[in-house]
Protein: LCP family protein
Organism: Streptacidiphilus alkalitolerans
Amino acid sequence: MSDDGDVPEPDSESTEPDSGPAPRRRSRRRRILFWVAMVTGLALVAGVGAVWLGYQRLNRNITTDTTTETLLGPPSARPTVAPIAYDAENILIIGSDTRAGADSSYGDPDGGARSDTTILLHLSQDRTHAVAVSIPRDAMVHIPSCQLPDGGHTGATFAQFNWAYSYGGTACTIRTVENLTKVRIDHFMVIDFSGFKKMVNAVGGVEVCLAKPVADRDAKLYLPAGRQTVNGTQALGFVRVRETIGDGSDTERMGRQQQFLSSLMQKAESDGVLLNPAKLFPLLDAATSAITVDPGLNTVSKLYSLASSLKSMPADQLVLLTAPREPYVNDHNRDQFQQPQADELFQQIRDDRPIGLTGSARPTPSPTPTSGASTGSDPRSPAFSGRTANQDICSSS
């Protein structure tokens, strides 16, 4: 410091770093961070938006039938539910063979609609076991009088089961099933042909197994013998054709449909479809486009809630079988329910008891402490011929 106290001037040769560029570098970093944040934010918004739009699309796909519940009449006119089965659910799944619209290529478009496939799906109150029972379409049954949307009524008649759908639609089919089984139907789902094909294609095809080659010109179905993967069009022919596969009976065809359903479920699980959004959305899109349901199942969230309640159920606890049947006494080209086996099966469903299979080592679910009653099989209960959802496609049922 100088004697006069003045501060010396900075040396022109000083080696102190120049602080001038620092603000520019900080500005650049801020701009980079800003654009990264913007891009990330837009990506998140786009992702959420895509999910929301996808959810709305799936909801719009679903067709809601608000008429059937009214046509079924007051609850007092329908079967009662035993206390042990209060939380169980019974869903009637109807495969409609309407030839209208997208399904016009399958048969005569003026031939009306009948329930080509009808399955009673029972889910136990604790969701530890389930059974899917195919109702023979050719079974001769008493079809009750049914109310029609225009206020009229059909007459009670004795006819083959699938005519109930032709006479009075979903409501008449439900009334007929409830009349036959004394099982209260909680929900229903009607599935059409075109949607079925899309579901199969969405999972990349499904495995089937044939003992002999098939060449059916009418069904446009040509398949070799053995294990193979079929696309949607082939799958539809596989589950519908009668004369050229097996013994040509409707009973054999129902067994083939059960075989196919178990294979479809296995494919969706083993191929990671349920855990992969890119694969799951096309499947959900196809499925929701194909169904008509009651108001209790008419949103994705309601269907998800139902499905999530089954996520812990082992595949070997889902039984698929056909209601016991035998040739109709007056016409062996038709069926009738075999007694007392059919009544015993429906009684077990009403009591929410697991269904045993002949020759099966299928384990029995443990009693549920909170239910107040055991869900275990009664050793006196009969066993039925069928298959479980985890059986290999080439194994016999």
Summary: The domain at 62-362+381-388 is CATH 3.40.630.190 (Aminopeptidase).
